[in-house]
Amino acid sequence: MSLPKPLMRGLLGKRLRFHLPIAFTLSVVAAIAFKYTVTEPRKKAYADFYKHYDAVKEFNSMREAGVFESVRPTGE
Amino acid sequence: MLRLPSVRLGGLVVRRASAALSSPVRMASHGNVSLSHSEVSQTVDMSQPMYWDRVDTPLPDRRYKDILTDSEKSLKQKEKGPWAQLSKEEKIALYRMSFLQTFPEMKQRSDEWKTVMGGIFIFLGFTGLLVWWQRIHVYPQRPHTFDPEWQEKQLQRMLDMRISPVEGISSKWDYEKGQWK
Asked: A27, B21, B93, B137: most buried, per Cβ within 10 A?
């Protein structure tokens, strides 16, 4: 009938000492993972798109497709 | 046990009525009765100290048995002395004077979850019937912009306008070959 006395103090401190380092590490890992899986590929995609981008050629293609109201396709 | 398959056909109204009528009876057999035997009627006088069996608030406002017999009173007197002199049966009797259920009894699992899940599915099914009726009798006509021909023209216009050319839809279209990449 005599059990050992249970822990009465320092319960929050013990929990924090265990969980805070894990929380910080996981947050940093999540941020790094996001950077290298999302932002870096996106920056590269934009850089590659604009490396050989000819604005006048794109404009003329769009004009021929008939999407503008200010300029009609060359035929009309 | 109360078995209710969630069948969404006619005859559901009959089943639902029987479930509503029988569920109060079933609830009483689930074993989570917490009325003390000193309360005769259903109404509880909340201005008096109450008794309860709860795992999260384990010490109620009053002892379970407020009216003690003489033998119980003499046991309570003996409790004021050294506890090592109490026998095991006396300690258990003292506990049962103060509490109706022990922790294991309180934590006993019941079949209430089956009733709960059954009720949830019944109401989900009924809601489905309502939504179905609504779709037939309330919703206006489907807009013509959902037609496949219109959707094709819409997609072609998006590609012509070079919508999302870097990472989105126009980046997946090959403009030279006129097909998806």
From this structure: B93
